[in-house]
Amino acid sequence: MKINIDKNLVEFTPETADEKVKLEALWKTIVDCTRFNKKLVPVGQYVPSQDELARFAIEGEDALNPSKDAFPEAYANEDCRCYCQTCNKYVELKKGDRIPPCCGKLMEVLD
Protein backbone atom coordinates (compact mmCIF):
# COMPACT_ATOMS: atom_id res chain seq x y z
CA MET A 1 0.00 0.00 0.00
CA LYS A 2 1.41 3.34 -1.01
CA ILE A 3 0.59 6.25 1.36
CA ASN A 4 0.99 9.86 0.28
CA ILE A 5 0.59 12.82 2.66
CA ASP A 6 -0.01 16.32 1.31
CA LYS A 7 -0.70 18.76 4.17
CA ASN A 8 -3.95 17.48 5.74
CA LEU A 9 -4.81 15.11 2.88
CA VAL A 10 -3.80 11.43 3.04
CA GLU A 11 -4.01 9.22 -0.05
CA PHE A 12 -3.91 5.42 0.03
CA THR A 13 -3.00 3.70 -3.24
CA PRO A 14 -3.39 -0.08 -3.29
CA GLU A 15 -0.56 -1.89 -5.03
CA THR A 16 -2.06 -5.39 -5.15
CA ALA A 17 -5.51 -6.84 -5.82
CA ASP A 18 -5.77 -7.88 -2.15
CA GLU A 19 -4.98 -4.34 -0.98
CA LYS A 20 -7.60 -2.97 -3.38
CA VAL A 21 -10.25 -5.27 -1.86
CA LYS A 22 -9.22 -4.29 1.68
CA LEU A 23 -9.24 -0.55 0.87
CA GLU A 24 -12.72 -0.89 -0.63
CA ALA A 25 -13.92 -2.69 2.53
CA LEU A 26 -12.42 0.05 4.71
CA TRP A 27 -14.08 2.72 2.57
CA LYS A 28 -17.49 1.05 2.85
CA THR A 29 -17.04 0.74 6.63
CA ILE A 30 -16.13 4.39 7.15
CA VAL A 31 -18.19 6.22 4.51
CA ASP A 32 -21.94 6.51 5.03
CA CYS A 33 -23.53 8.91 2.54
CA THR A 34 -26.84 8.65 4.35
CA ARG A 35 -25.81 10.69 7.36
CA PHE A 36 -22.65 10.19 9.44
CA ASN A 37 -19.18 9.12 8.38
CA LYS A 38 -16.94 7.31 10.82
CA LYS A 39 -13.35 8.26 11.57
CA LEU A 40 -10.03 6.55 12.19
CA VAL A 41 -8.54 7.26 15.61
CA PRO A 42 -4.99 6.19 16.56
CA VAL A 43 -4.65 3.51 19.24
CA GLY A 44 -1.51 3.24 21.36
CA GLN A 45 1.71 4.39 19.82
CA TYR A 46 3.74 3.90 16.67
CA VAL A 47 7.52 3.99 17.01
CA PRO A 48 9.11 3.04 13.67
CA SER A 49 12.22 1.50 15.27
CA GLN A 50 10.10 -0.70 17.58
CA ASP A 51 6.70 -1.28 15.94
CA GLU A 52 5.81 -3.08 12.72
CA LEU A 53 2.33 -1.62 12.47
CA ALA A 54 0.27 1.42 13.35
CA ARG A 55 -3.15 0.66 14.84
CA PHE A 56 -6.34 2.68 14.46
CA ALA A 57 -9.87 2.24 15.83
CA ILE A 58 -12.95 3.04 13.76
CA GLU A 59 -15.25 5.37 15.70
CA GLY A 60 -18.74 6.50 14.85
CA GLU A 61 -22.32 6.13 15.98
CA ASP A 62 -24.24 3.45 14.10
CA ALA A 63 -27.30 4.15 16.23
CA LEU A 64 -27.50 7.70 14.88
CA ASN A 65 -27.79 6.58 11.25
CA PRO A 66 -31.39 6.89 10.13
CA SER A 67 -32.95 3.98 8.33
CA LYS A 68 -34.18 4.31 4.77
CA ASP A 69 -37.71 4.55 6.20
CA ALA A 70 -36.82 7.71 8.17
CA PHE A 71 -37.08 9.77 4.96
CA PRO A 72 -40.29 10.71 3.14
CA GLU A 73 -41.32 8.26 0.46
CA ALA A 74 -40.76 9.72 -3.00
CA TYR A 75 -40.83 7.71 -6.20
CA ALA A 76 -39.58 8.35 -9.73
CA ASN A 77 -42.42 9.27 -12.12
CA GLU A 78 -40.29 8.09 -15.06
CA ASP A 79 -36.86 6.67 -15.80
CA CYS A 80 -34.40 9.27 -14.54
CA ARG A 81 -31.06 10.03 -12.99
CA CYS A 82 -30.78 11.34 -9.42
CA TYR A 83 -27.77 12.97 -7.78
CA CYS A 84 -26.62 14.17 -4.40
CA GLN A 85 -25.73 17.86 -4.25
CA THR A 86 -23.34 17.19 -1.36
CA CYS A 87 -21.16 14.32 -2.63
CA ASN A 88 -22.09 14.34 -6.37
CA LYS A 89 -23.08 10.66 -6.34
CA TYR A 90 -25.37 9.65 -9.24
CA VAL A 91 -27.89 6.82 -9.45
CA GLU A 92 -30.08 5.65 -12.34
CA LEU A 93 -33.73 4.96 -11.44
CA LYS A 94 -36.55 3.26 -13.29
CA LYS A 95 -40.14 4.49 -13.18
CA GLY A 96 -41.60 3.61 -9.78
CA ASP A 97 -38.24 3.23 -8.00
CA ARG A 98 -37.98 4.92 -4.63
CA ILE A 99 -35.71 8.00 -4.62
CA PRO A 100 -32.86 7.12 -2.23
CA PRO A 101 -31.44 9.26 0.56
CA CYS A 102 -27.81 10.40 0.46
CA CYS A 103 -25.83 12.65 2.80
CA GLY A 104 -28.82 13.15 5.09
CA LYS A 105 -31.49 14.07 2.50
CA LEU A 106 -33.26 12.68 -0.56
CA MET A 107 -31.34 12.77 -3.81
CA GLU A 108 -32.37 15.34 -6.46
CA VAL A 109 -33.91 14.26 -9.78
CA LEU A 110 -31.91 15.50 -12.79
CA ASP A 111 -33.97 14.40 -15.78
- State mean pLDDT (0 to 100 scale): 84
Indicate the percent of residues in helices.
10-25%
- Beta-sheet strand percentage? 25-35%
What structural category do the secondary elements indicate?
Answer: alpha+beta
The strand line-up of the biggest sheet is 6-5-9
Give the helix tally: 1
Distance between the termini: 40 Å
Q: Count the beta strands.
A: 9
Radius of gyration: 19 Å
| Helix and strand sequence | EEHEEEEEEE
Largest sheet: 3 strands, antiparallel
Unreliable stretches: none
Short description:
The chain is 13% helix and 31% strand. By secondary structure, it is an alpha+beta fold.
Secondary-structure map:
Layout: E1 2-6, E2 9-13, H1 17-30, E3 39-43, E4 55-59, E5 80-83, E6 90-93, E7 101-102, E8 105-106, E9 108-109
Distinctive features:
three-stranded antiparallel beta sheet, 31% strand, 1 helix, alpha+beta, 2 domains, 9 strands, 111 residues, two-stranded antiparallel sheet
Question: Any overview of this molecule?
Answer:
By secondary structure, this protein is of the alpha+beta class. The chain folds into two domains: 2-59, no CATH class; 69-109, no CATH class. The protein is built from one helix and nine strands. The protein has one helix at 17-30; strands at residues 2-6, 9-13, 39-43, 55-59, 80-83, 90-93, 101-102, 105-106, 108-109. The strands form four sheets. The protein has a three-stranded antiparallel sheet, with no helix packed on it. Strands 1-2 form a two-stranded antiparallel ribbon. The mean pLDDT is 84.
